[in-house]
């Protein structure tokens, strides 16, 4: 994943959600999220940035566990007709 992909995804999300207010972007400390271009873009959208603590792999453990359970108990058990 490089910074152009991250910035493009952010642009698409903000456009799709019509530039929502009070969005905080929480990420790890990957180089793409620390790049000048990403910082300029998030500032332009007025989105505060939140980063995982340096050297702390457990910052996102709770939400990652939730997503794993959600997939196992809901997503993988059903056949969806379409994306919606």
Short overview:
The chain has 84 residues and is mostly helical. The protein has a domain of 54 residues.
Description:
The protein has a domain at 3-56. The chain is 50% helix and 7% strand. It has helices spanning 3-16, 31-34, 36-44, 61-75; strands spanning 25-27, 49-51. It has a two-stranded parallel sheet. The mean pLDDT is 88.
Termini Cα gap: 26 Å
Query: Can you summarize the main beta sheet?
Result: 2 strands, parallel
Number of strands: 2
Query: How big a fraction of the residues is strand?
Result: 5-15%
Q: How does the helix and strand content classify structurally?
A: mainly alpha
Average pLDDT metric: 88
Strand order of the largest sheet: 1-2
- Work out the helicity level: 40-55%
Q: Which consecutive residue ranges, at least 5 long each, have pLDDT under 50?
A: none
Order of helices and strands: HEHHEH
Number of helices: 4
Question: What radius of gyration results from the CA coordinates?
Answer: 16 Å
Q: What's the structural blueprint in terms of helices and strands?
A:
Blueprint: H1 3-16, E1 25-27, H2 31-34, H3 36-44, E2 49-51, H4 61-75
Parallel strand pairs: 1-2
